[in-house]
Amino acid sequence: MFFGISHVVVPVTDLDAAVRLWSQVMGFTAQHRGEGHADIDTGSAVLRLVRVARIESKVSLRVTVSNVGDAYQTLLSAGAESRYAPMKTPELEEMACVTDANGHSVVLWRALTEDEWDFVPELPKQGEWSAEAEDLLKRLLGHVPALFRMLARRKTTRVIEMMAKEAQSPVTRELVIKGYITSSAKVTRSRLIEPLRAEGINPDDYKAEFDYE
Fold first, then answer.
1. Tens digit of each residue's pLDDT (9 = 90 or more) over 87-104
2. Domain ranges, ordered by start, for the chain
3. What is the pLDDT of residues 137-188, one digit of tens each?
4. Nearest CA to 129 among 82, 164, 86, 96?
5. CATH of domain 8-112
C-alpha cells in the first residue's frame, strides 16, 4: 500500500534564493521547476521547495557531510545563522546546526570513525585473557584501518579464543600474535609485518603462522 516518501516539502518565501542555497552552495541538483515550486535531488530524498507568502511551520533537515566544520563555514558564508557549532556527541557522531533565511534548521552530520573516538572499544571476548594479551591485541588492531577494524576485532578475537580453547589455556601474548596473523587472509599477511615490528615483535619468529593456509 505504501511505497515510500516521494518528496519532503519545505516552505520558502524566496524560491530563487532557496534554490541557490541548495544547488549552488550545497551542490545538490535542481531537478525540476514548476509554478511556485522547485525540486532538489539530494541523492537520498527529493526536497520540494514551495513558495509561500509566510512561513507557518518550520522544518529540520539533517544533511550528511564529509566535513562538518567546512560545511558549517560554507553555510555561514552564504548567510545562514549558527544555532550551534560543530561538536562531538555521546552517540559517536559530529554535528553542527544552522538556520537558513526561512528559519529552517539544517543539521550537518557525520559518523565519527574509531580513530576519532575518545576510547578504545572492548574486545568481544568470552574466555580468560591475560591483561598483557588484551592490551597487545588492542594495540595491534589500532593498525587496522578504522573502516575495517570492527570486523577485524570480531574475527581476530574469535580465532584467538579458538586457539586458546584447543590449547586449554587462557589467552596469552603468544596466542594473540599467532591468532592476529592467522586470522588474516594469507595474501594480505605481508601488511602485518610493520605493525608487529612496531610492537617489538619479530615477524621472522612466526614463519609458520605466515605460511598457514
1. 999 999 999 999 999 999
2. 8-112, 131-211
3. 999 999 999 989 999 999 999 999 999 999 999 999 999 999 999 999 999 9
4. 164
5. 3.10.180.10
Tell me the backbone φ, ψ of residue 28, rounded to 5 degrees.
-85, 170
Grid coordinates representing 12 are 520558502
CA quadruple 179, 207, 186, 194: dihedral sign? positive
10 Å CB burial of residue 147 (0-12, 13-18, 19+) is: exposed
- For residue 106, the cross-strand partners are 61, 98
- Name the CA radius of gyration of the chain, rounded: 26
Cell digits of residue 125: 571476548
Contacting residues for 40 by C-beta, under 8 A, at least 6 apart? 19, 22, 23, 28, 29, 30, 31, 46, 47, 48, 49
Q: Which residue has the cell 594479551?
A: 133
| Contact of 18 with 49, CB cutoff 8 Å | yes
